[in-house]
Amino acid sequence: MAKVLEGPGMGLLKKWGLQTPNYVVVSSSEEFDQLAQTNDWLQKSKLVAKAHEALGSRFKLGLVKVGLDLKGTKAAVKEMLGKKVESVTIREVIVSEAIDHTDEYYAAAKSVREGVEIMVANCGGIEVESNWEKVKRILVDIGEEPTDAALSGLVKDAGFSGDTAKKVAEFLKKLFICFDNEDAQYLEINPVVQNSAGDLVALDAVTLLDGDAKFRHKDWTFPFAAEFGRAYTKNEEEVMAVDAKVKGSVKLIEIPGGNIAMLPAGGGASVYYSDAVVARGGKLANYAEYSGDPPDWAVEVLTEKVCSLPGITNIIVGGAIANFTDVKKTFGGIINAFRKAKAEGKMDNVRIWVRRGGPNEKQGLAAMKELQKEGFKIEVFDRTLPLTDIVDMALSK
């Protein structure tokens, strides 16, 4: 699941016919000044400025400013940009027009095992948190769409009536279409408000997408929000870019201060090996995995990033017995990256521990073992060795 920041999330809502306020996302005061000269609404409207980062409780942290004029917004943008909140540095600010309204509502769609749950309440904003029993919901079965009758019944059950009920039902229909077409896992709009013209407007959005579906969406040009309370590193972003292009998967998260680098095959093995390192008192330098039989060049890119981690002393190339991931092919990418790293002086004090099984494992393991002749400190084991024994060996040296 990949979190999307508010700006691109609002862009997806607009794409499917849901109304949002005018907004801009800026990364410098100069950029905001330029946009203010070409967008009349920035000069004429009351404005809202918010830190455009994956942070909770932004209002309490002083990272939401409301009811501003242009001068006040310029000051707010300047104040927020570059501000450090815990481990997050504010790199962007989203500025939107303030929408006059009286009532606030809540709407959401969530992926569940049985299908999609559509939720709505006739209260919104912070009020919904203390009135969760007012949230009404219906379940849409997998592969189905909500009927007009089901949506009408839902909004009436939530306490809406008359023309507003019709508008909310239509809003929920568009929300589901957006959710379904954008491979969303969770889409929450809080609050939904009615403007002076009577139109429903989405003021804020929480958007979680299926990151592995990115190859289906050429217009997903926005970066996903970092999941660990900090911005993604350059290496992480480059691996994510590769991951979006290939069949299979390659993943990387850097963990500063560790010395045990991970290069396991498979999501399950990656967690298993990481847990084994921590349980034995080791310090992880990263989380990584490759799975689903990715091309050798993608695994090579991932390995290059792993080899470049500072201060590493061991690399764990572990994996269970693959069903269809070609061990020889993927090991070819790893070997190429190992040789490149060695030529750059990155492997002088690094020991490599390999354990793997699967299609073409004999050829792949033999190619790994040949690296010993090139001066690599590498130990290679087949499927007969218990999975985490290589962790014991690495930490005992």
From TrEMBL:
The keyword Heme does not apply. It holds the Pfam family Citrate_synth_N. InterPro entries: Citrate-bd (IPR032263), Citrate_synth_N (IPR056749), Succ-CoA_synthase_bsu_CS (IPR017866), Succ_CoA_ligase-like_bsu (IPR005809), Succinyl-CoA_synth-like (IPR016102). Keywords: Acyltransferase, ATP-binding, Cytoplasm, Lipid biosynthesis, Lipid metabolism, Lyase, Nucleotide-binding, Phosphoprotein, Transferase. Residues 20-218 form the ATP-citrate synthase ATP-grasp domain. It is found in: Cytoplasm. In the C-terminal section; belongs to the succinate/malate CoA ligase alpha subunit family. This is ATP citrate lyase citrate-binding domain-containing protein. It comes from Candidatus Nitronereus thalassa.
